Amino acid sequence: MYRASDDAALVRTAEAQVLASYAALVQVVARVAALNARLVEGGVAPIPLATYTPPPAAVGVPASVDLLQGQRAYYAGEAARLGEALRAMESVLAQRARPVAPLRPGPRAVPAAYVFAELSRGAWSFFKIALFPPFTMLIAPFLLLPWYAGPLAGAAAMAAFLVVLWGVSLAVATKRLRLLARGEVGTVLQKSEAYSGVRLRNWPVLWTNGWDISLRAYSGLGSVTTLTVQTPRGRIAQVTVRTGPSFRGVVLVDPETGGGLANCDFASAPRPDARGEWDPALPGRVWAAACFSVVASLALATATTVAALVSLDLLAF
């Protein structure tokens, strides 16, 4: 009888511990849910959060100390995991909340790193698409077709393609560099969002929060944001941004032409420093994309030159 009484007391103690552990988890979940609302508002991916049920008991299985201790350990582990993620994201938000100096009026100097990134943006846009397998199968035949007419024809076609590719890159970069040198930060007067109809699943997209731009996975429908912005000089402009998550970044508008561009559409991911000038540091992903574009273009140009020289030698022979 005494043993049965002791076992019942142990079970009641274990039940109390499970309830306390679950209550602590509920408090952490509430804090995470509140933080997730701030993260989404700030353009940051939220912390994955599940729905936790109260301490259950399996149907037909009497409660035991081992069963209850397992539940307590699970709830405590989840509370610790979510608490760690909570503290990490709170530090991220605190860092992003640090004030950034306003961008000083133009004309302003554009760092050489920005010039390099913007010049290679057009080429990177092509290579990024060409390396995606479904598009590779569509693009490759058009690039290889001239070679069937002969090495010289193939080399000439490839050379023309590279000239056009980098010519377009130069034209686009010229407009963007002018905007970086003279653009003014626009005040958003109107914002309308619509879904693009493209569904993304764990696709890397740019998340914006003011001047901060981060590359994160996104699942959901793509969005098209139309912004009506006004410059400090009173000019009104329309800017369209195509992203996955909602756009919460900054828009630069040319005070003379009225053309504008969102900060996430620049290859250089521009951001002012403490003096209001452009911070010359580039994210690693920008360096990787720009360098890859240059190396890939040089490789194609070298292969084309070698093929042309070999064909000329064969013709001479």
TrEMBL record:
Ranges that cross the membrane: 129-149, 155-173, 286-312
Organism, as annotated: Sorangium cellulosum (strain So ce56)
Name used for this protein in its record: Membrane protein
UniProt entry keywords in alphabetical sequence: Membrane, Transmembrane, Transmembrane helix
